[in-house]
From TrEMBL:
The keyword DNA repair applies. Residues 6-518 form the RecF/RecN/SMC N-terminal domain. Residues 348-382 form a coiled coil. May be involved in recombinational repair of damaged DNA. Keywords: ATP-binding, Coiled coil, DNA damage, DNA repair, Nucleotide-binding. It comes from Streptosporangium brasiliense. InterPro entries: DNA_recomb/repair_RecN, P-loop_NTPase, RecF/RecN/SMC_N. Pfam families: SMC_N. This is DNA repair protein RecN. Belongs to the RecN family. The keyword ATP-binding applies.
Length: 570
């Protein structure tokens, strides 16, 4: 299901106090006397889809202007997904869009019941509506839109090569970005690698062991206090075991005293189990003291002052302290840093090889993109030729027989997301003038007709479901006006078309006719919108033809126009 605008409610906008427009899914025309507010309807639609808010458009006496639209959309379609992405809701396929503009210039927008930035409506409008007014030909005047429109017109011939190009372009850009980053950081990477290598050399030359710094601290303490340690061990040894070589028995040693105690207890142990237990423990104590005394003797023998060894150990301490100060809190941390640094150096040295590989891939992708871009240019050029001829033929029937539309294609300096082609629609109003961009080569009224011709040619290829034309028939009449009506009806076969017109020949082709009626009491003017039935349409066309609603001649002419249009559409 293609989205369409079902109803628009306008309040406090220009001369419109309050109006409700129920729109046909096909061709809806709006007519009315000059100053009745027809253009305000187009302005309201523009506001609804993110147009610029002008506080001067707020109706005098109103504090704000409000436009609310009800759209029918596919709940599973792209538009519904965009609405859901911003937190809006769609009920039974109906989407409500609302926009207010205060007299002070403040503007607010709602989408599916959720307040959104006005820019969200503008973004959404790209998939919903194309507005063509004499002062608002924004959509197809955008170069990006013109390129996209030409691509759709080119059809299936372009789809496969364009998809291949876009895939290659994406990878080409990724490779280019990676190359740029690696190349820009080449000096930094080289400096980092040099610093890491210097540190690794220091660690490798020192060759530390995990825990070595703690071992050295213990050895320094032992060597620095060797005399005190030996003296303490010898004194303790004598206290435990005595010194039989001295020949002095000033005091008994611990082993002898414990032995005497054991002997005394052993003599009576059989009379009391408790004392027997004590005798066993004294025996164990004697053995333990003897062992300790032996170890003290051995320790005293092993400890000796060694200034040379102390100097060597202190020098080694200084080397390790230097490493710890730079690379970690102890030798274990220094070794961990060295392992990480070695891995990082490997990565940095591998970048050179990576740059080489990426450069080779970049060159291959550049060649591939060049081939694909040339193919896209060839297909677009052929489509541009067909398109220019088709639009020029349409303009001939729209009272612009000497106008010519061409599609200008120039090559960009570099690859773009869709190729190297810069596309611009150009028009020359007569054979002697060079083709100029649309907004420079056509007046306001001509531009509307050019846009109509373009949209008719694009019909079916352009996914926009709703077209709005304001005064598309400015400056024409007679047969050309009939052709404009006929082409608008043709466009309405595949899209919703809303047209503001002052020509009965155009209005006769509409599926639905709305008239903007003006009423006033001399001081306040109010306008409203009324849907016309068959008789009402004849009266309105008569007024547009002869200026008299009840003119018999005008009425007959109006009925004839309606009959001709109905037969043509049938």
């Amino acid at each position: 299901m293609r989205p369409r605008v079902e109803e628009v409610r306008i309040q406090g906008l220009g001369v419109i106090d309050e109006a409700v427009l129920v729109l046909s899914p096909g061709f809806t025309v709006l007519t009315g006397e000059t100053g009745a507010g027809k253009t305000m309807v187009v302005t309201g639609l523009g506001l609804l889809f993110g147009g610029r808010a002008d506080p001067a458009r707020v109706r005098p006496g109103s504090d704000k202007a409000t436009v609310e639209g009800t759209l029918m959309v596919d709940p599973a379609g792209r538009v519904a997904q965009q609405v859901q992405d911003v937190g809006g809701e769609i009920e039974d396929g109906e989407l409500i869009i609302s926009r207010t503009v205060s007299a002070e210039g403040r503007s607010r927008a709602w989408l599916g019941g959720r307040t959104v930035p006005v820019g969200t409506l503008t973004y959404l409008a790209e998939d919903l509506v194309a507005v063509h007014g004499q002062m608002d030909q924004q959509r197809l005047l955008q170069p990006g839109r013109q390129r996209a429109a030409l691509d759709r017109y080119a059809g299936e011939d372009l789809v496969k090569p364009l998809r291949a190009y876009e895939h290659a372009y994406k990878r080409h850009k990724q490779v280019a970005d990676q190359l740029a980053e690696l190349t820009a950081r080449a000096r930094e990477r080289a400096q980092e690698a040099d610093l890491l290598r210097f540190g690794l050399d220091e660690v490798e030359q020192a060759d530390p062991r995990a825990g070595e710094d703690a071992e050295l601290r213990e050895e320094v303490e032992r060597l620095s206090h060797a005399d005190s340690l030996r003296s303490a061990a010898e004194t303790a040894h004598r206290a435990l075991l005595g010194d039989p070589m001295s020949g002095e028995q000033v005091m008994q040693d611990a082993v002898t005293l414990v032995g005497q105690a054991r002997t005394a207890v052993e003599a009576v142990r059989e009379f009391d189990p408790t004392l027997a237990g004590i005798a066993d423990r004294l025996a164990e104590a004697g053995y333990l003291i003897s062992d300790v005394a032996t170890e003290l003797a051995a320790y005293a023998e092993s400890v000796e002052a060694d200034p040379v060894r102390l100097s060597v150990v202190q020098e080694r301490q200084a080397v390790l302290a230097h490493l710890v100060r730079k690379y970690g809190e102890d030798t274990g941390a220094v070794l961990a840093w060295a392992a990480q640094a070695a891995q990082r150096v490997t990565e940095l040295e591998g970048d050179d090889e990576r740059i080489s590989d990426l450069t080779r891939e970049h060159e291959e992708l550049t060649g591939r993109l060049t081939e694909l871009a040339a193919e896209l240019t060839r297909i677009r050029a052929a489509a541009a030729e067909r398109f220019g001829q088709a639009v020029t033929e349409e303009l001939t029937a729209l009272a612009m027989p000497h106008a010519r539309v061409v599609v200008g294609m120039t090559a960009a300096d570099d690859f773009g997301p869709h190729g190297v082609d810069e596309v611009e629609l150009r028009m020359s109003p007569h054979p002697a003038s060079p083709p100029l961009p649309l907004n420079k080569g056509a007046s306001g009224g001509e531009l509307s007709r050019v846009m109509l011709a373009i949209e008719v040619v694009f019909a079916g290829a352009d996914p926009v479901p709703t077209f709005v034309f304001d005064e598309v028939d400015a400056g024409v009449g007679g047969k050309a006006a009939v052709e404009i009506g006929r082409r608008l009806a043709r466009l309405a076969r595949t899209a919703q078309v809303i047209v503001v017109t002052h020509l009965p020949q155009v209005a006769a082709f509409a599926d639905q006719h709305l008239v903007v009626e003006k009423a006033g009491d001399g001081s306040v003017v109010r306008s409203g919108v009324v849907a016309l039935d068959k008789d009402g349409r004849a009266r309105e066309l008569s007024r547009m033809l002869a200026g008299l609603e009840d003119s018999e001649l005008g009425r007959a002419h109006a009925e004839e126009l309606l009959a001709i249009a109905a037969a043509d559409k049938a």
